[in-house]
User: What shape does this take?
Amino acid sequence: MSILTTVTEAEAKVVEVVRDLHAPVVGYVQKGVDLAGERLPKVTYPSTLPKPGEVLDSQYEFVTALLAAQYDLAKAVTATVAPLVGAKATPTKATKATKSAKAA
Assistant: This one.
């Protein structure tokens, strides 16, 4: 087994743990909302503000585009320095940009 295989398997386990924690975390947050909802006065969310889900979606698009740009840069640098370390350079292929990246 190679070191990369070991790392990849560990990373997969981390992702699995995060996914497994989804239901318990949401459940505890719901309990907190239920408890707070009984004790707090009713409020109206300002219509001038974006909804929390919209902010989350917007930030996810941004981070996805940023990560793709960083990946492209890292791949290009890796291919450029490959001959110095005796590795064959692999051709780089740009990742598909999201709406956010195209707008920037």
